[in-house]
Specification:
alpha+beta; 6 helices
Length: about 230
């Protein structure tokens, strides 16, 4: 379901006009991009303020209703008051369904609690990246990308090229670049003995469940037939 934002055209511009708009509970903004000229707009402050609290509002294609005309747009920038909960300005960009866009998509980290490095070795997850620059068609843009930590041990990392990106989505990387997304590190104060215990537990957990049964079977002597 697309997030909708309602906007109106803004005729008056300048510092004075913007101040009057803000006093009236509106946020001045601009809508640009495509083959149409940039259009000054205004949106309801409270609606925009609450929308900005939603993660998806920052990384989704939005449906802007501009005086009855619906357009597909992206939130590109916004300015907040230095210390008041007040949105001062917002920039939106028109998008075309057949043209790729560049966006920063948030990363969601899953299964960190069952990662060997955390559960068995006492490590903690260090998030190196919290969002990823991607390129895709507007219709393929994901709200977030999952980073699965379930197989990561202490000292190991998840890199961008390890991620399972949705179909049609590509990470924006320089040539031969493969940055770290997250790693599991040892907290300060952890001793080598603690690590050894954790590594032993990890090895025990990873051992095939059938091994003890097989060892027991090998240890039991074969029953000999009774002599008559």
């Amino acid at each position: 379901m697309k997030i909708e934002i309602i906007a109106n055209k803004r005729e008056l511009q300048g510092t004075g006009a913007s101040r009057r708009l803000r006093r009236a509970g509106k946020v001045p903004g601009i809508l640009y991009g495509g083959e149409t000229a940039a259009q000054p707009i205004q949106v309801d402050h409270n609606a925009l303020y609450h929308s900005l609290k939603q993660e998806a509002f920052h990384a989704s294609v939005l449906s802007m209703n501009l005086e009855g005309e619906k357009q597909q747009v992206l939130l590109r920038d916004y300015q907040m008051h230095p210390f008041r909960p007040l949105v001062l300005h917002a920039d939106f960009q028109r998008v075309a369904a057949d043209r790729k866009i560049h966006m920063k998509v948030p990363l969601h980290f899953i299964n960190a609690d069952v990662a060997p490095g955390v559960k068995l070795q006492g490590g903690v997850v260090s998030h190196v990246l919290n969002e990823l620059n991607v390129t895709c068609l507007p219709g393929d843009l994901p709200e977030f990308i999952e980073v699965d930590m379930k197989d990561v041990s202490v000292g190991h990392s998840v890199h961008v090229k390890d991620l399972n990106l949705p179909k049609g989505v590509e990470a924006l990387l320089h040539r031969n670049e493969n940055p770290v997304v997250a790693t599991i590190v040892v907290p300060r104060g952890t001793t080598e003995a603690d690590l050894a215990v954790g590594e032993e537990a990890a090895a025990t957990t990873a051992a095939p469940a059938a091994a003890p049964a097989a060892a027991g079977a090998a240890a039991a002597p074969a029953k000999q037939p009774e002599k008559k």
